[in-house]
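Build the 3D complex.
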Amino acid sequence: MTATDWDGIAAAALDAVVDANQLRRPRDFDGGSPRTSLSETGQPVVSFASNDYLGLTQHPAVRAAARTAIDDYGTGSGSARLIVGSRPVHSRLEERIATWREAEAAVLFTTGYAANLGVIATMGRWASVICSDELNHASIIDGCRLARAPTRVYPHCDMGALADLLGCSEGPGMVVSDSVFSMDGDLAPIGELSEVCAGRGALLVLDDAHLVLDHPESLHPHCRVLRVGTLSKAVGALGGFATGPRTFMDLLVNAARTYIYTPAAAPAAAAAAAAAIDVIDSPEGDELKRRLRTNIDCIRSGHSSPIIPIIVGAEDRALATSDALGRQGILVPAIRPPTVPVGTSRLRVTVSAAHTNEDLNRLAHALRRAGIDA
Ligand SMILES: Cc1ncc(COP(=O)(O)O)c(C=O)c1O
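Done.
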């Protein structure tokens, strides 16, 4: 019988998740470095699941900057940027991001998720059509849903299909793509994407959330591009941002609802992010990226990003393998539908510069024991 009262509706909906063997709960860990332990049992584990690609969540200068910001400004911002939430640390971070990303200006959001919603819903208002890659992240999908423009999904990285979609629309279109896809770790062909957009006057929005190593392609000089990024992954803090021409950034400040109607980032998060970007943009950052490159090559030589998917197909197999690795103290999550298409369940290995050779050897050994070839 279909429930009609809210307790019944919630219970039935949760039962459906349980029946699909998809119930999940957060687990606590005792620390943020790859070598940590499960709080409940104390079991030591090496994590290959974090997006802390350069290990900056634990960097002494980043931690010190967060502590100083708390001493200077307190814990929360207390309000939205446009009311009384803005502190010098926010404005300095925007300037730092703009210099780092070689953009005219930057705008901060409280997460990368909010940045995608804000940019896509705002600019989408004026788009004749929004074209979105079929493997784009959930925050892009939700941004398209909020935008008041028709959205067309094109097959993964299919530039011919994209050109056809743009060709069918009257007026300026908009194209949105991850630059590194979050579940496959492959790169969008940003050179071609920007060429297609430039040829049809479309605005290109690139989500660089997982772009930690340089992308080998450059953008077409006549393409209008906005870039979205996160401070919660390689930057090791919390927050999101958009970069691009100043007019677009000023428009976001005045029209993006996820910028206007939510508090400014906690000063400690903004200060940590600025300190982390200083590290990334220094010889030490170059060294960390070299180390990350070497670590990726150790698991899968030449792979384009720190996200290494090991496709196993069936959901049960992905879960069983993840459990088998877990029993050996190696944490690799199983990713299943609806996050990825049916039949492509996988182990999602993420590699960090903070992993040691011993960590990588342990992963390789555990995968072999589980009968998996990376
Ligand atoms: C591709 C992509 N874009 C955006 C986001 C959202 O960023 P944030 O974690 O800062 O909310 C994520 C996070 O998982 C992501 O993978």
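Residues 77 and 179 are 31 Å apart (CA to CA).
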